[in-house]
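User: Please check token order:
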Amino acid sequence: MDKITSILVVVERGTAPQYALRKACVLARHFGAKLELFLCDAEHAYALKHVYDRHGVAEARSACLAEGREFLEALRKSLAAEDIVIGIDAACESPLHEGIVHKVLRSKPDFVVKTLGSADRGRGPFLTIADWNLIRTCPVPLMLARGRPWQPQPRFAAAVDVSGEETPQLARSIVRTAEYLSLGCAGTVEIFHGAREHRPETEEALHELGREFRVDSGRTHLLVGEPSKTMPWISVVCM
């Protein structure tokens, strides 16, 4: 990533869109980017796709889009962000991740921000099937936001695989993106690798990557254990 001039913020009913909106506004202010709020009503689209009687489907779809834009307009007015250019758009398309990807291909944003899927009382926000599919298919960097707000000087964690199973170029690309975000937000970068067991060669590869990007050893971390438990990220940026 070498620029952020436009950010697409995916808004979903039933989640907490303020998590994504707050972080998107921080990025927009630091990088001078514009925002576009986007709602894709996948549930309504699925129902319309499978309705037996096709009479009135076009009208129902138009009403769905109008309602979505009305919801987004109210959300835009609620933001204290007069200094940011904010557009809105709605779609009625299923499945959700395809609707988002199609919007990305149309609007060509540099970055996508979305709140993690549904909230669970015991676990909080978590990755849904739609999130996993979006991670796999989104053509631009994607941030999945959770509820914890950023500090004035945010810390960006670059989670990399230096075990040899992934290419060194991918690890460098991830760190480079974290570096770009941190420089724009006057933050810091920390590099993480999760491994089920400690291997000296893996630790050395991690520190070598840190030296390449001038990240000192105190901000490079080898976390030993089940990665899903040792790295429960507050926000996830996917390349």
